[in-house]
Amino acid sequence: MKKIVVLGGGESGFGAAFLAKSQGLEVFLSDKGEILENYKQLLIDNGIEFEEGKHSEEKILSADWIIKSPGIPKKAEIIAKIKAKNIRLSSEIEFAAAFTDAKIIAITGSNGKTTTTSLIYHILKDAKLNVGLGGNIGTSFAKQVASEKFDYYVLEVSSFQLDDVQNFRPYISLLLNLSPDHLDQYNYNYEEYALAKFKIAENQENDNYFIYNKDDEMSQKLLEQLDLKVNKIAFSLKEKLSEGGFIENGTINVNFKDTFSMKIEDLSLVGNHNIANSLAASIASKILNISNENIRNSLMTFQAVEHRLENLPEINGVTFINDSKATNVNAAYYALESMTKPTIWIVGGTDKGNDYTEVEDLVKRKVKAIVCLGIDNQKIIDFFKDKKELIYSTSSMEEAVKVSKSLAKFGDAVLLSPCCASFDLFKNYEDRGNQFKQQVLKNHN
């Protein structure tokens, strides 16, 4: 019997262990940190052997197949030892995909993954398909494979999950866009990171589909170099395409199988990046033979994702926007681009090798004050000090919101779009966003 070892005891780790157990495989879970109480209880209830606070190397290295949680750095010592012994190392999505015949729609990209994944799921659900939502979002994919009988899975997939796939072959894959992100994990090499994203399509065959962004330079460059067998379908905001998705005269258009079009003003999501996300989702829906009426209705009724350009109640004529999920410069670019009011911008956190020149022009045009929020704000201050007069340094959400409120006048906007990871002051981007909402609404009922 195959011996499975799962590294990491969070959502994906527990899910993988649960699936292995349900398949009658021998399974052991190891977490170098502490396992959260709810996952620990689930492991106990399901009779899954585990350890926390250490990695027992001998036990781990005797495995036939090791499943690694995406949060474990690829440069971790235990990973080097696993690779040296040539043990198969996979992500949870690779492992779970081996145990289901369901059609998988997998979405990756530097930005817009969560929104587009949620949007496609919303369209499929509205069309009454039997569909699950997973990957980087919601319930673990592996857990669902073990306990549900879905015909379709819509999965948000990160580069970290794709690093550890061997045979993963989605029916439809989407690569929304590429911009330098997580470069600290990719030897500060943009192309290496971009190639990790392309792993979503490398096992696809000519009965599968790959949806990509024709306006994205790095995607275009790598498509020319890679020998992909999959059917490629593009979307573009810049040019009219004979096949794929494009915009023309204020409408989004998809030419695939037949035609679909819809006025941009009827989309529930705003901003150019969301027009691109809506085009990509529409193409995927046409591939799955969903009716135009269903697609149109779903694109009109979709609610934006929490922590992604989320509007809070207006206070004294000031708009507050929670974009805590913007953990890289490109995501903040989209947020700043969509701003129509003078903006107080809250930015900062754990820097992943950011280059702020991408947003420099938008900051000059749209931002009236910068409020840095982090343990170390020096890099941001140094970059913008000659470009913006009003820059403030804060080290707690309470302080950042207080300063922002004091700067904001009637008709202004306060935007939390941090450009950075949250781990210096917060548990994760959700915690950061929730604290922002709490502080904004404090003393205001």
TrEMBL record:
Residues 107-284 form the Mur ligase central domain. GO terms for cellular component: cytoplasm. One of its GO terms (molecular function) is ATP binding. Transmembrane segments: none annotated. It is an enzyme of class 6 (ligase). It catalyses: UDP-N-acetyl-alpha-D-muramoyl-L-alanine + D-glutamate + ATP = UDP-N-acetyl-alpha-D-muramoyl-L-alanyl-D-glutamate + ADP + phosphate + H(+). Pathway: Cell wall biogenesis; peptidoglycan biosynthesis. ATP binds at residues 109-115. It comes from the Bacteria. Pfam families: Mur_ligase_C, Mur_ligase_M, MurD_N. Its main location: cytoplasm. Keywords: ATP-binding, Cell cycle, Cell division, Cell shape, Cell wall biogenesis/degradation, Cytoplasm, Ligase, Nucleotide-binding, Peptidoglycan synthesis. The keyword Ligase applies. Its EC number is 6.3.2.9. One of its GO terms (biological process) is cell division. Residues 307-419 form the Mur ligase C-terminal domain. It is found in: Cytoplasm. Cell wall formation. Catalyzes the addition of glutamate to the nucleotide precursor UDP-N-acetylmuramoyl-L-alanine (UMA). Belongs to the MurCDEF family. This is UDP-N-acetylmuramoylalanine--D-glutamate ligase.
